[in-house]
Amino acid sequence: MAELHDYFALLHAPDAARRLLGCELIRTLNGQEARVRIVETEAYHQTDAASHSYNGRTQRTDVMFGPAGHMYVYFTYGMHYCCNVVTGPEGEGSAVLIRAVEPLGGEELLRMNRPKSGVELTNGPAKLCQALAIERQLNGHDLAQVPLRLELRPALRPNAIVETPRIGISKAVDVPWRFYIAGNPYVSAQ
DNA sequence: TGCCTGATGTTCT
DNA sequence: GAACATCAGGCAC
To answer: I need a surface site. Which of A123, A146, A167, A172 has the fewest CB within 10 A?
Structure first.
């Protein structure tokens, strides 16, 4: 399915971050399926000091410079994974961090990986990775394929999207590249 | 409810 | 050797 790759290859990271809100991820694991909706994102780009790709292509950031529509998974703080959707043309280091998702189905599967209830299940970048069992083996994964698929949904109305500076970073803190769905309880800080 | 801190590994300088 | 796109638990108020 080249559609997904081509679509995100044409989008600049902040546009892709907006466009990903409301889209759905389908995770297949042990014959079960869970479906979640993306409700909070952050854009990163190689021209941006807060981005992993800012210092050029390295072994770690290689996936960010690869084809769009794939997943960049990185390990941080010694115990957490975070996941991004690669965007932009090949050779450009840009991606969208998924910061929060809302469960739509298969919550049993999510809770098996992360025994929490309510918004605590998926209201943070490392939390949703744990719930969806996203680890290093999914780094570089093609999001058009099982066991983790991205489904596009109609773009949200601009007035349903809130734009703010990003969270948890120390550089380029004024760049307003964090986006979330207004009023959604799974958003980490509104 | 909100601040502070410890846990812990990978990456880059 | 320091920084790090985090989280959870403990403690003070």
So the answer is: A146
